[in-house]
Amino acid sequence: MAARRDAIGEAGLLLSRKLALLCSRACPGSIIVQTLDVVRALRETPWTVVSGFQSPTEQECLEILLRGERPVIVCPARNAEGMRVPAAWKAAVAAGRMLITSPFEKTVRRATTATAEERNRFVVSLADAVFIPHAAPGGSLDRLCRDHITGHKPLWTLDDPANANLHALGALRVTTQTLPALTRNGHREVR
Question: Is pLDDT of 4 > 70?
Fold first, then answer.
């Protein structure tokens, strides 16, 4: 899948090193705390974070990322043309550190469960590696990991018992301490 021509912002961000960030809506509190710490640390790495920034945890991550200097790519679960850019995003778009893009035709004006799932596949297709703080077992994100990520791209998650399903898939465990080495190595677990 390719980014659409009707994107808003800096299209050159598609050429950067990209880390997909996807998280299930229902997320244990212990994972949320760890996720926000890792995202704060991500602001000091060369990664451009790409996400739909739709789930509550993803939205909190976007707020943290926008307080830093690293670029982000936002992929709504609808067409981006004519989309009202939230006031909190306008400075990042103007500074050339945000791109808003999606794979959808102009006729897709509303987000649905189906477009959110398609958007998540699009986010993964854009990324060089994928960070999933939590995928609810049996949910759509868990299926995405099994069907489209495992064996294709490095998958990162947090070391938490609630992520046993991702650990079973071979996801690399990321912490604020291991992030610098994992960022350099990308594909190997660092202990």
Answer: no
